[in-house]
Amino acid sequence: MHEYFIQNISYHKDEVVKLKGWVYNLRKSGKIWFLILRDGTGIIQCVVTKNDCDEASFDLKDVLTQESSVMVTGKVIADERADGGYELIAHKVELVSIAGEYPITKKEHGIEFLMDQRHLWLRSKRQHAIMRIRHTIIKSIRTFFDQRDFTLVDTPIFQKGATEGTATLFETDYFDDKAYLTQSGQLYAEAAAMALGKVYCFGPTFRAEKSKTRRHLTEFWMVEPEMAYYDLDMDMDLAEDMISYIVAEVLMNRRLELETLERDITKLEAIQKPFPRIHYDDAIKLLQARGVDVQWGDDFGAPHETIIGEAHESPVMVHHYPSAIKAFYMKRDPADSKYALAVDMLAPEGYGEIIGGSQREDDYDLLVERMREEGMDPANYDWYLDLRRYGSVPHAGFGLGVERTVAWICGLSHIREAVPFPRTMSRLTP
Ligand code: NSS
C-alpha cells in the first residue's frame, strides 16, 4: 500500500497520487474550481476542471462544504505561484462525508468561543503549527536524554502526599482511602536515580491552581531528570544544554510552523550557551535598581520574572534562593544555610519560569528538620527517607514545564493554546 501526504508532495512531481483529507476552503469561478485540501500534514490547492476530471467529480462543487471529507486523485504539478510550490490537477474527487455548517468561519471569533470549539479549532493552520512544534519539543527532550544514557522511569499519578505544598493538591477517593493526583514525579525519580544513576520521568502533573493567569494550567506536562552524584552546577549545565538542544531542533525542523505563527525567529536564534547565571542576591539588586519594591527573602512573582528575563537574550538561571521560600527537599548551602541550592530558569521575552530545580538534601537529619519546619510528618515520607538511610549520595534534578516551553518557543500570549485540550480552573471541556 502506498500512502501519499501533502508534506512529501515534492517527491511526486508529475506523478498521479491520491490524497485523503478535508476541504479547507473552496473557490469557484465558472468552468474551474479550486479545492484547498488539508490532510493533517499540509495544505494544497487542487484544480478541478471539466477537461481533467469526470462530471460527477466536477459537480461536487455545488455540494462540498468547509471541512467535508474528500479524497482527491490527480497529477502533481510544480507551480511557483502555489503555496508550497505545488498544486494538484484533479482527475477524480470522491466525497467521504459531507460536513454540516462549520462553526468556525473566517470572521473573528472570541477566545472563549474558540476554546469551546477546541476539538474543531485544532484543525486551523495556527493550532496545527503549535501542535507540530509541541511534538518536536517533546521528541527532542526524549532524544536529548536518551542520547545521554538516561533511563525513562514512569512515576505514579496517584500519590499519598504532597511534593510541592498542600495548597495545590487535587484530592480523590481511593477505595476507603484518599489519594492525590501527582504534582511532580520527583520523589520517585530520586528513588529511581539511586537505582539507575541518571533517570527522567515525563508525564502529566496536576495542581489545583486557583489563580487565573496566562502561565497556569491545572493539568500540565513535566519532564523531570534526576541524577545521582550531580551538584547544582552540573544540574544547571544540563538544563542549559537541554534548552539549547530543544531550541536548535525546533529551528531546524519547524521553520514553516514558526513562520505560520509569525514568530520572530531571530529571538530564538539569539539563544546561545552559556546562559547567564545570577545569584538570588544579585537578582534582588537588579530588581531594586529598576525601581521594583522587593526585599531580600521575597519570592519572585510573574512581574519580577519578566523583568529579570527581559534583561537578557538567552534564558537566565537564578540560583541560591532563600531556603525559607523553597521546597523542603532542596539542599541548604553548606556554606550559608539561609540559601537553598536551588535554580529557576526564566525564559526571555517575559515568559518567566520554565524550569525549577535543585540539588537535593541528602542528609537524613537535615531533611527531617526541613520537613518539620514545613509542618510535614516525616512518618508519611518513610520510604523517601530510606533513600538517605541506604547509601545516600549528592544528587540533583529539575522539572521543565512543557506547556510553558511551548508557549515561549511559539511566542503565544497564553498557555491555553500550548496543549491540545487545556484544563484550567474554569475549563474542563471539551
Ligand atoms: O514546581 S516546580 O517549579 N518544580 C517542581 O515541581 C520540581 N519537583 C521539579 C523537579 O525538581 N523535579 O515546577 C516545575 C515547572 C515550572 O518551572 C513550570 O515550568 C511548570 O513546572 N509548572 C507549571 N506549568 C503550567 N501550569 C502550572 N500550574 C505549573 N506549575 C509549574
Give an overview of the whole structure.
The protein is built from 13 helices and 16 strands. With 430 residues, the protein is α+β, with helices and mostly antiparallel strands. The strands form three sheets. It has an eight-stranded mixed β-sheet. A hairpin with a 4-residue loop joins strand 2 and strand 3 (43-49). Helix 4 packs across helix 6 (232-253) and helix 4 (125-147) crosses helix 13. 38% of the residues are buried. The mean pLDDT is 96. It binds 5'-O-[N-(L-asparaginyl)sulfamoyl]adenosine.
**Order of SSEs, N→C?**
EEEHEEHHHEEEEHEEHHHEHHEEEHHEH
Structural class: alpha+beta
Uncertain residue ranges = none
Bin the helical content.
Answer: 25-40%
Bound molecules: 5'-O-[N-(L-asparaginyl)sulfamoyl]adenosine
* CATH class category label of the largest domain: Alpha Beta
Number of strands: 16
Number of helices: 13
Strand content: 25-35%
What is the correct CATH architecture of the largest domain?
Answer: 2-Layer Sandwich
Distance between the termini: 35 Å
Identify the CATH homologous superfamily of the largest domain.
Answer: Bira Bifunctional Protein, Domain 2
Which strand order do you get reading across the main beta sheet?
A: 6-10-11-16-15-14-13-12
Q: Radius of gyration from the CA trace?
A: 26 Å
Sheet with most strands: 8 strands, mixed
- Please tell me the overall pLDDT: 96
Return the domain count.
2
Instruction: Please state the overall shape, judged from the principal axes of the Cα atoms.
Output: elongated
Q: What is the third-level CATH name, the topology of the largest domain?
A: BirA Bifunctional Protein, domain 2
